[in-house]
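Q: Fold this one first, please.
A: Sequence and structure below.
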Amino acid sequence: MAVLEVPFFPSAPSHIIQVALDGAQWRIRYDWSPPRSSWYLSLFTAAGETVYLRQRMTPTADLSRTLVFDGPPGLLGCSGPDPYGRFDLSVFYVPREDLVVAPRTDVRVTLQTELGVQVSNVQAL
């Protein structure tokens, strides 16, 4: 299974990156919230259209599938402890072709990546 590390710079409390995921360009904005001790991720198309705003980054959650299905076709996630500190997370992407699709949408699966990241509760598409 291919796991791609997505650029993330926790020393900058707010920053935007552009990255290719499954052949398409995306803009990701990261924002640190000191009162909540949490990172928030916003996702935009390469043209700047908003896909979603300020999704709390939670380890083991698929950041590209919360409330919307217009994001990258693979799995965008983060790893680290929860609760976490500002410098505790890393961001990764599993391309669609490397995801195992279960036959039902309510089946719980756990992905063990080559980076040692476990992602649970992935739903089949």
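Q: Good. Now the second chain.
A: Here it is, same layout.
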Amino acid sequence: MKRLVRSILIATCVLVLGLSGCSLASDQADMADGGTPTGSRVTEQPDGSTTPGGATTDTETPPAIPPGSLALFATMSGGSQSDFLRVTGGNVSWDSTHYKFLRYIPEVEMLDEFGWTSSKSYSKTYIYGITAGDWVYVVKCFTSSGRKDITRVDPKTGNWVGQFSPITTNDMYGGFTISGDRVYYRSKVSEDWFGNRSGGGHLMAGEIGGGTVELLDYYDDDLEGGYRGIGDELITILTTYQDNGVFYDIYRVDPDTGRRGDLLYSFGSPGRVTFYAGDTSLFWTETNSATGEVDIVKFTLSESPVYFLEITDTSPSLLTIDESQGKVLITFNDDTPESPLYYLTDLVDGDVVELDIDSGFYSRLKNGNGQFIILE
């Protein structure tokens, strides 16, 4: 198949965007924003849903997983996959009301379950996962209230390692970020009968196995922007809309106090930019409005942003970017017969490899696709 994703190998290709241009923080004054199923690794909950627990096997002994194997994660629904998920060599059966968070290891054709929930008309729930550092975090959402239960899971064994105290945000599916061993979020805003704020909206932090603490009050001037965890670092991205485009200011944030620190980078774009948090870098995409082609930018926080990859000869949709162990995974859908597409690139040498992944594992659900880990 024709390669659609290619690396931009010019090391000195420093990003320069249009409109008002861009500048480094050091030049500016600080500113104020298929496998065969091998059994489940789950523990049943009182409501019938599951969260990760000890590794168990229902059908056969799991194959040995070689170090360096790629593990992909996705959320699937019974309704979207008919009676089962079709993957070469097997399937996963479920009820039509189920959402399942699955792991797939292509090298050993191992497909298994890291958690599920059953969403009923009287109790709407959802489940998905994110990767951060060496861990997978399984997120169960109670969509009527905004509550989220976030569990840290060993990506190789499926064992439950720990859990944050439940959090509640205004975003029914997100509204939080993980940095190091902490989760950061803005607490859900409560309103009175007249629609006026009566509480909440503070910047909160929680630790695995511990409680939560308030870092910044709702009215604090430092409480602005969208927070992202990049490894152990925390940043916030302030967005400003003007007549000639959208402008972004990226600030470092003190993870202990929530206070906004140095301005790391500023840039403008004709339209909105989508950001993706990796383990060592922040990524974002720039789309050519005429062709639909996409440039991917990489920003390590300590160096100038650079054009990293380009997606050509297609107009990708549902694009995701994730990073693990010096590799970056790009997944997207398009109108070609080969869709969906998976590309793995090396951060050191820039090599890009197209992965042959069964299309049955691709998810179009909310936060349902594109997360991966290189297993040690």
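Q: Anything worth noting on the second one?
A: The longest strand covers residues 233-242.
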